[in-house]
Design a protein that fits this description.
About 35% of the residues lie in helices and about 20% in strands. With about 160 residues, it is an alpha+beta fold. The protein has a 4-stranded mixed sheet with strand order 3-2-1-4, with helices on one face. Helix 4 packs parallel to helix 5.
Length: about 160
């Protein structure tokens, strides 16, 4: 049997890729290839990619960073009313299919509902205004418990809480 023996010499391409990867190690194939083309070399893209993979310059894919497990502590029961409030949303839909949300603020000591406000749209600015109204009526609590919903991690809400 006779097989075709390649006569190509990729030493130039290998040398050029290694030289570029030493200068800029964080770059990927596209950066190296376009720099090679801009320097006047007319090597085929498939050839450069084959050599790039052959010498093992592929950048590793970055995996998603895992958050460390939180230490779960039991919730402390407040000892008097108006010390700790909890704020959260409930959602439902109308017969027509349109969804609405209800913003609730509850006192954790006696489970009294301090604010129940429905709306079709509930941006963080409106949440802050409802909180201000509840504070004007009942006084400022020591602590407010919230989850990590989009309204509670918005910059407007976080700046208000600081």
């Amino acid at each position: 049997m006779w097989y075709y023996q390649t006569k190509r010499d990729d030493s130039e391409v290998i040398d050029k890729l290694i030289e570029m990867s030493e200068l800029k190690p964080n770059r990927g194939f596209d950066y190296y290839y376009y720099r090679i083309r801009s320097q006047g070399f007319v090597w085929n893209r498939k050839r450069v990619l084959r050599v790039y993979r052959l010498i093992g310059l592929q950048l590793r894919r970055k995996s998603k960073k895992r958050l460390p497990a939180r230490i779960k502590t039991p919730l402390n029961q407040p000892e008097a009313p108006l010390q700790v409030w909890s704020a959260d949303f409930m959602s439902d839909s109308l017969v027509t299919g349109r969804r609405f949300r209800v913003f609730n603020i509850i006192d954790d000591y006696n489970r009294a509902s301090l604010c129940i406000t429905p709306a079709f749209s509930m941006p963080a600015l409106r949440v802050v205004s409802y909180l201000k109204q509840a504070i004007e009526i009942y006084g400022k609590p020591i602590q407010i418990r919230v989850d990590n919903g989009p309204e509670f991690i918005a910059r407007i809400f976080v700046n208000y809480c600081l």
